[in-house]
Design brief:
Helix Hairpins; RNA polymerase II cis-regulatory region sequence-specific DNA binding; 2 domains; mainly alpha; coiled coil; DNA-binding transcription factor activity, RNA polymerase II-specific; rod-shaped; single chain; 7 helices; LRR binding FLII interacting protein 1
């Protein structure tokens, strides 16, 4: 009886403490002199032995149900153990005078039932072990997924920080590009002004060339006028001399002719020649003044042209450098836009992966809660 008690208490105690307590109480009621396995040599209480075996069969019947959860098994075992009423315990604890003989079949059935109980307990332990292993695997997978979620969150935070940095750099580059465009517009405006000034300088140079031509023409006219004046003076003098000779020949006297010649020279030739000389001198003075003024204007325009050419060269250099900087800024802007698009794509991928992992984690949590509810 102690061997059977140990076996029953060992296996039932691992399943449910409440059932183990009921079985222990039932076995103790038989007394220390009870021997369940004494049927080979003869038992003194076969009816009590048979009743215990029947109740044991009823108790461990639910252990052999493999498709049911462990929780249902424990509930049904508890209900089966509750059938050990006080009357049953009293009947098991009766006087030892009612012992009967127990044949070998009872012992064989008891051993078979114990083996079945052991097998059922082994299967239950195997199921429990598998459930614990599965639970541990799910817990490990949950931990791994949580680690992945944390890692992805950190990556997402880093990507957001880099994205914010790229946005800031893009804003700075855009502002710098706007400033360069403004400076380029100013340089273009100055360049247009310089071009206009250069055109004006060219026009002034053309005017200076025309003035030089006019000066040369005036000088030629002055020379022609002087030659004409000299020729007219000579011609008038010749005419006067001829007239004097004619008058001398007619009159036959030299003195009146001489006096008349002096009067003619004073009254006829000198005033006309003086007027012509005064006009010629006045024209020559005007032309000389215009010539000096033109030369001064030409000198000033040449200096202005030299200064404007220097400004044009500087403005051209500045414009070329501004265009170069603008091209570099455009290249940098395109590069930043590509990096921004790549960062946005990466952030979107991380968000999608994070959502998938969150859904998977929620599914694992739901499965785990369902398994815990079943156990």
């Amino acid at each position: 009886m102690r061997l059977s008690s140990c076996l029953l208490l060992h296996h039932t105690g691992r399943l449910c403490p409440l059932l183990a307590n009921h079985v222990a109480a039932a076995l103790q009621s038989l007394g220390p002199s009870s021997k369940v396995l004494k049927g080979v040599s003869g038992s003194e209480r076969p009816e009590q032995h048979q009743y215990l075996i029947n109740n044991s069969y009823m108790f461990f019947y639910y252990v052999q149900v493999e498709e049911r959860p462990e929780r249902d098994f424990l509930d049904k075992g508890s209900r089966t153990a509750s059938t050990l009423s006080a009357a049953t315990l009293a009947s098991l604890g009766g006087p030892s005078s009612r012992r009967g003989s127990c044949d070998t079949s009872f012992s064989v059935e008891t051993e078979a039932s114990i083996r079945d109980i052991k097998d059922s307990l082994a299967e239950s332990e195997e199921k429990y072990r598998r459930a614990m292993v599965s639970n541990a695997q799910l817990h490990n997978e949950k931990s791994y997924l949580m680690y992945q979620v944390d890692t992805l969150k950190e990556e997402l935070a880093d990507m957001e920080e880099r994205l914010w940095e790229k946005h800031r750099e893009h804003g700075d580059k855009t502002k710098e590009l706007d400033r360069e465009r403004h400076a380029h517009g100013i340089l273009q405006f100055k360049f247009k002004n310089v071009e206009q000034t250069l055109r004006q300088s060219e026009e002034l140079l053309n005017e200076v060339a025309q003035l030089r031509l006019a000066r040369d023409g005036s000088a030629r006219e002055i020379t022609d006028l002087q030659e004409t004046l000299e020729w007219k003076e000579k011609k008038i003098a010749v005419r006067r001399l001829k007239s004097q000779l004619d008058q001398r020949q007619k009159n036959g006297s030299e003195i009146p002719v001489a006096e008349g010649d002096d009067d003619l020279l004073e009254n006829g030739l000198d005033p006309h020649i003086l007027d012509l000389q005064r006009d010629a001198n006045r024209q020559i003075s005007d032309l000389k003044f215009k010539l000096v003024k033109s030369e001064q204007e030409v000198t000033a325009q040449e200096q202005n042209i030299i200064r404007l050419e220097g400004q044009v060269s500087r403005y051209k250099t500045a414009s070329e450098s501004a265009e170069k900087v603008e091209d570099e800024l455009k290249v940098e802007k395109r590069k930043l836009q590509r990096e921004l698009r790549a960062a946005l794509d990466r952030v979107e991928e991380v968000e999608v992966s994070n959502s998938h992992l969150s859904k998977r984690l929620e599914k694992i949590k739901a499965n785990r809660n369902a398994m815990l509810a079943q156990h």
